[in-house]
Amino acid sequence: MGFVGLFLSGAVLFLNSLMLLGKADGKSVGVFNLFVGIIQIIIPFYLLIVSDQNNWELY
Fold this sequence. Notes:
single chain, mainly alpha, 75% helix
């Protein structure tokens, strides 16, 4: 699941570079940035909530 976050981060960086070069619209890239940011906040919380916590150890 971590690879999805890395892939989305790479896509955001790629689109940001296209925007800086003038090849992409700034508003569209901004919407995608917000979408990826929200997804990268929601997915880890979801994974924490649904985990069975059998592998968690307290020291």
